[in-house]
Amino acid sequence: MSGTIALRLKFVSRALLLVLLTALLSCQLAAQESDRAEAQDPSSISNITLTGGYLNDLSGANESNGYYRLELNGESIKQAGTPFTSQNLSKPLTKPPKNGSAGDSKDFTLRLEDGAVETGGPILEALNIRPFSVKGKFIRELRGALQVNGQIDGDLSIAAGLETAPLHPLSGLLKYRGANGPNWLILGLQEERLEDSSAGITKNRGLATYRSFVGQGYKWVASEKLAELRKKLPDLLVHRAPTFAEAESLSERIVARFGKGALVPDDSDSIIFNLYTGLKYMGTPPPSTEEWQKLLRKAAESFTTPRDQPTYAVWFDATGWYVLNGRTTGEKRFSNALGLTLKYWLNPEEDGSRWLELRYEIGRVRAAPTERKHFLALSYGFKL
Amino acid sequence: MNPFQALRAVAQAVQDFTGSSGAPQDKKYLEDLKSTPDPVPWDIFFYVGGIPLSHFFAYSGQAFGSVSSSLWEEIKKASNVDAPEPENWDIDTHLLQISTYILVHAMYDESGGGQ
User: Fold this and answer.
1) Cβ-nearest to B16 among A86, A166, A220
2) Which of A30, A123, A251, A340 is a Cys-bridge partner for A107, taking CB atoms 3.0 to 4.6 Å apart?
């Protein structure tokens, strides 16, 4: 009993320390934010996210410990302790390489990618079968790729990373219950089979997989952050593109700048670009400066129409795999990992930039198939 | 591709992926966007454009990072534009930012690389 109390005290003290540290860092970063010259930019892209917390391993196999993770533009730049593992649960399959491992000198080949099946190889020609391609609704819905290469003497290579499109088996039930939350189930196949008798190579590993998610947000409240943006966005847009001619010039620069990169434009550029491009598409004569500015202000109003944010959310996620072939020592044929999370936003009126999260997770993940995880994690996070 | 098609494709892809129609007040606007022929009235267009991805997920943070590439596949398929997954999108990114990104890539390709 005293051990349990000591563990709880240790848990609470460490969690409080982490919360304090992250809160202090939050203040420092917020101060830097307000000093930025571009602070009026309404872009909602968060640049910095910090999550810290405490993970208590209930299985007793590993030490319980604190952890944190600092992200810049969604990429982890610093983390310590046991990383937050929920990201592993629904990790998508990796596509096999474009060029299959078996090369291009096989007797027959079959490749499925981008919604089409293509076949080829000398064996088909010998049988007087011309290479053919197949397209169909089911094939179009598959993500990833499959490549099969074979020799007439029996060597066969398969590389596959395929998934179905998201299925929604619970949608009907959720709607019946008045819920409107995200829900999906994705089935997959991962197969690597390489046989090359001349080189003495044999690899064989196949998995049937699933990943699923169901969640719901509750107690939606009006966003004050949006109300603030609603006040300043019209003037910002007018300042940025006061005339239709200025909007044309800006739109050309946006195409040149963003068309070759991988960055989404901010809100103000997006609104001006779409309004200008939409009017051009509709064949509307260039509006006067007054008309153009009126359109911009109306666009800003619609974009910032008062809307709600959830105060808390609950979600359940699960992933699992069935070993079709190539089971490793100690690995079970069928493995699962299940997670249940409760997230509470401390400031939903500010679009929930600070939160507390309690997560329970149990099961195995593909990265460590023989290790059974069983833990409870409490996190505090914020983003700028 | 025009702005209305781009936004409609993105909204449809996000709905198909998540199985959700956003926050309670978003549903009507999403249905209007889907059912109204081009040009869509600006108030509907910009309301839908202002919906953040978080409304379709009801959660935020790291979990989004693990599903983003799958969602991006849906958006590419729905829009038929082969653009790379954005580096700077997250759960707070608005639908209009994504549809603009898609539209800009389509226009950049049509113009022969911005020439």
Assistant:
1) A166
2) A123
CA distance A254 to A266: 11
Cβ atoms of A86 and A71 closer than 8 Å: no
The residue range of the domain holding B55 is 3-110
Q: Mind listing the pLDDT tens digit for each residue in A115-125? A: 777 777 776 66
State how many domains chain B has: 1
Q: Is B71 within a domain?
A: yes
> Domain locations in chain A?
224-303
Cβ-contact A262, B85 below 8 angstroms: yes
Q: Would the CB atoms of B58 and A181 count as touching at under 8 Å?
A: yes
Residues in chain B: 115
- Residue B115 is assigned to a structural domain of this protein: no
**Does residue A166 have a cis bond before it (omega within 30 degrees)?**
no
Closest Cα of chain B to A201: distance in Å?
A: 33
Residue of chain B with shortest Cα separation from A299: B46
Kind of pairing between the strands at A75-80 and A143-150: unpaired
- When comparing pLDDT for A383 and A88, which is higher? A383
Q: Flag if B65 and A49 touch (Cβ within 8 Å).
A: no
Residues of chain B contacting residue A89, judged by C-beta atoms under 8 Å apart: 66
**pLDDT value at A222 more than 50:** yes
A295 to chain B, minimum CA–CA distance in Å? Answer: 9
Task: State the amino acid at position A266 in one-letter form.
Answer: D
Determine the residue among B21, B54, B101, B104 to mutate to test chain A binding: the one whose Cβ has the most chain A Cβ atoms within 10 Å. B104
**H or E segment to which residue A207 belongs:** strand A201-222
Q: How many CB atoms lie within 10 A of CB B39?
A: 16
Q: Kindly give the pairing relationship between strand A75-80 and strand A108-113.
A: unpaired
3-state secondary structure of A347: coil
Q: Is residue B105 in a domain?
A: yes
How far is residue A245 CA from its own chain's centroid? 38
- Across the interface, whether the CB atoms of B18 and A259 are under 8 A apart is answered no
In a domain, B68, yes or no: yes
Average pLDDT of chain A is 75
- The residues near A232 (Cβ < 8 Å, ≥ 6 apart) are A40, A42
By the 8 A CB rule, do B26 and B106 touch? no
Lowest mean pLDDT among A30-39, A177-186, A245-254: A30-39
Q: What is the pLDDT of residues B43-86, one digit of tens each?
A: 999 999 999 888 888 655 455 666 677 788 889 989 999 899 99
